[in-house]
Specification:
heterodimer, B: about 250 residues, alpha/beta, 4-stranded antiparallel beta sheet, 10 helices, globular
Chain lengths: ~260, ~250
């Protein structure tokens, strides 16, 4: 990090600052006296309030994926593979990434704007003056809540999107739920679920840490708040793709694909 | 000789090439209202943020209630902050919380859960009564006027019964009548709780009404010091410039 500081380049300085901020998160998270009440409150806001958006998107995703792939599979007489193909694609890749991108948009911008606004109106200073550690109260709770809730949202998105796929199949066919579910579930192994779940934990962490970093270090008044919210979304979305790429490579090396 | 509650010695702080505070020193005594007067950007707010350790100075010593704050760890500093209230220029009310939650917030660090359950309600009501806004207890900050927000921020400062209050431009942006009410409130708090205060201001009425002693901060230094009337009679060109420019 000291090396990054010496390089007079805003990008590397930003990376260095983000690394320092992440380091501080890990130092603060192990200190005693956690803010559990605020953590639960944030889980509610991040999880429950994002669920409807994730749910609707997941349902449409499953439906559209089925409708789009059906003609091609039909051409090869492989219509019966639709449930397994849809479930594999959704579990391994589509549902976790789309959920993370929605969360990057909603949670990342929300946290960035909220903390940014608190910074420029001196509310964070007021917390510090009152003897509360604002980093622990605002940053640690939000990052932990995001890390916990994004995998849960992703799991729910997988279930809803598979159901969406079932409706998609039945728009032009007639497959009963038991058969569809059996075929969708039969194609999956734990090796599909585990990397998917692990990467959403990292997605959640990245979204939380980038959102809080941008908001907590917001400057230059209301203009800065807007910039914090926007850059939080951009950087978090980019990190989701980079982490996904890394996760796929690791899963491949470990023979989980 | 009386011992100061706050003693600042040879404080220096720069932002890049802008040397804001140059060997600045002051002493605040028990029950006293000390006004720091200076032009915008002269470093008044930086000074009180250094005192409460929101900003770290480059050099110098700050002693509050016999404790050198540079030697305190975070926990010790947090405990000391219970004795030093801070009223922000922007009020800094937590806008996602009600007035009650705003006032209860400082208690969570300094009182146990049992103490809060037993005494928080009474403390909140007392602080609101002190500022004459008991009826706003369940309102959100956005529902309050500028003057009311200032009073609520003051109530939040008072809830821990601090020994010293640092006011950062308490009347800026308020109309003359509300400003006068805030000045009277500051005096009544001084009288009731025997608090000492450092008041950052360039509002002449505020300085005249509330200040027992005034320090003029010019060029980062404690340039002139005395009562308001003494400074008004000061013939130094920089002091005259300041008063004539107001």
């Amino acid at each position: 990090m000291a090396l990054l500081d010496k390089i007079n380049n805003p990008f590397f300085q930003e990376v260095g600052d983000l690394a320092r901020f992440t380091g501080r998160f890990f130092r603060e998270v192990v200190k005693p006296k956690q803010e559990w009440e605020e953590f639960i409150n944030q889980c509610y806001w991040i999880g429950y309030k994002t669920f409807s958006l994730v749910g609707i998107t997941a349902f449409i995703m499953g439906l559209v994926l089925t409708i789009q792939t059906r003609p091609t599979l039909l051409e090869f007489g492989a219509e019966s593979f639709i449930p397994s193909m849809v479930s594999l694609a959704l579990v391994r890749e589509i549902a976790p990434v789309i959920t993370a991108l929605i969360c990057a948009g909603k949670i990342g911008s929300g946290i960035g704007a909220e903390l940014g606004s608190m910074r420029v109106t001196e509310q964070i200073d007021a917390m510090e003056v009152s003897g509360t550690n604002p980093f622990k109260y605002l940053v640690v709770t939000r990052v932990l809540a995001s890390t916990v809730m994004v995998p849960i949202l992703s799991s729910l998105a997988i279930a809803i999107s598979i159901y969406g796929g079932y409706l998609g199949v039945n728009l032009k066919g007639d497959v009963n739920w038991s058969l569809y579910w059996y075929q969708a579930y039969d194609a999956l192994i734990y090796g599909d679920f585990i990397p998917s779940m692990v990467k959403t934990i990292f997605f959640g962490f990245a979204i939380g840490i980038v959102g809080t970093y941008k908001g907590y270090n917001s400057q230059k008044g209301t203009e800065g708040v807007g910039r914090s919210a926007t850059t939080a979304v951009i950087v978090a979305s980019l990190l989701v793709f980079i982490l996904d790429l890394v996760a796929v490579q690791i899963a491949d090396v470990l023979g989980l694909t | 000789m009386e011992k100061p509650i706050i003693k600042v010695s040879n404080l220096n702080k720069s932002f890049g090439s802008n040397h804001v505070l140059r060997d600045f020193s002051l002493s605040l005594f028990e029950g006293e209202n000390l006004v720091i007067l200076g032009k915008s950007g002269s470093g008044k707010s930086v000074l009180i943020k250094c005192i409460i350790r929101l900003i770290d100075p480059e050099s110098g010593e700050i002693v509050i209630l016999d404790q050198d704050i540079s030697l305190l760890d975070q926990d010790e500093m947090d405990l000391l902050r219970a004795d030093v209230g801070f009223l922000f220029q922007s009020n800094a009310l937590y806008d996602s919380m009600t007035v009650r939650q705003n006032l209860e917030f400082p208690l969570r660090r300094h009182w146990t859960k049992e103490e809060r359950a037993e005494k928080a309600e009474a403390a909140v009501l007392q602080a609101l009564e002190d500022v004459g806004l008991s009826h706003t207890i369940d309102m959100m900050p956005a529902e309050l006027s500028g003057g009311m927000r200032k009073r609520i921020a003051l109530a939040r400062t008072l809830i821990l019964k601090p020994k010293v209050i640092l006011y950062d431009e308490p009347t800026t942006g308020l109309d003359p009548i509300t400003s006068r009410e805030i000045n009277e409130l500051m005096l009544s708090i001084q009288k009731k709780y025997k608090t000492a205060a450092i008041i950052i201001s360039h509002d002449m009425n505020c300085i005249r009404m509330t200040g027992n002693r005034v320090i003029m901060l010019i060029d980062g230094k404690n340039y002139a010091e005395g009562s308001f009337d003494e400074l008004l009679k000061n013939t130094d060109p920089k002091v005259r410039d300041f008063f004539e420019g107001l």
